[in-house]
Write a structure and sequence with these properties.
It is a single chain. By secondary structure, the protein is of the alpha+beta class. It has a single domain, classed as minor pseudopilin epsh fold (3-Layer(bab) Sandwich). Helices cover 26% and strands 37% of the residues. It contains two helices and ten strands, in the order ααββββββββββ. The strands form two sheets. Strands 1, 2, 3, 4, 6 and 7 form a six-stranded antiparallel sheet that branches. Strand 1 and strand 2 form a beta hairpin. The radius of gyration is 21 Å and the shape is globular. The two termini are 36 Å apart.
């Protein structure tokens, strides 16, 4: 009986460990998908935009059956804000102004309207048990906040820190954890290559 009980305990613990790890993988992949969806919206518009409807019509009927109406291009993105050592993650959309501003010594394009973090944010549909524990870059610099913003018409990525400055690093690392406690066995690292806007989800090895 003791042996059966011990084997049952090991089996249950193994299943729970596997389930937690699988949910973390799923959550990290889902976050990447939601960020990439923001890029798609910047290129094609949201599901209510005329351009998106036009594409659907063309794919369905091989010809344009509905005349598209004018819609304002928008910048879409994700904002990470740190609070009590945990980051909240929200999506946003702002109008694409594409205006010139004087920077003090030359004219520069200001592609997106200013983001108002007090309103207009939409919580992403991530698992409540999944948390963003840390954001850093390939040089080891840590960030207290991060904005990933995609500009139309080609979805160009802008990475901005909490001070409003463009991040010059090559790679950003977003550490994702699962559960109420920080356990190295239940962490993933989402590596964002800023040079080509590509993502990799990596397991963080528990090195002792």
């Amino acid at each position: 009986m003791a042996i059966v009980a011990m084997l049952s305990t090991l089996a249950v613990n193994g299943y729970l460990s596997y389930r937690r790890s699988a949910l973390l993988d799923l959550g990290a992949d889902n976050l990447v998908s939601e960020i990439e969806a923001m890029k798609a919206k910047a290129i094609y518009g949201s599901s209510t935009d005329a351009k998106f409807q036009e594409i659907k019509n063309e794919l369905a009927t091989k010809k344009l059956t509905v005349k598209p109406t004018e819609s304002i291009p928008q910048c879409y993105g994700v904002i990470f804000q740190k609070s009590a050592n945990i980051f909240t993650v929200n999506g946003f959309a702002v109008n694409f102004a594409n205006t010139k501003v004087w920077s003090g010594d030359n004219w520069q394009y200001q592609g997106c309207d200013k983001l108002d973090v007090s309103k207009g944010l939409t919580a992403l549909s991530s698992d409540a048990q999944m948390h963003i524990a840390d954001i850093s870059d390939d040089k080891g610099l840590k960030y207290q906040g991060l904005i990933l913003r995609f500009l139309p018409p080609d979805g160009k990525l802008e990475a901005i820190d909490n001070a409003g400055k463009t991040i010059q690093a090559k790679v950003l690392k977003i550490t994702v954890t699962y559960g109420d406690t920080v356990d190295p066995n239940y962490q993933r690292e989402i590596a964002l290559d800023l040079r080509n806007s590509s993502f990799n989800v990596n397991k963080i090895e528990n090195v002792k």
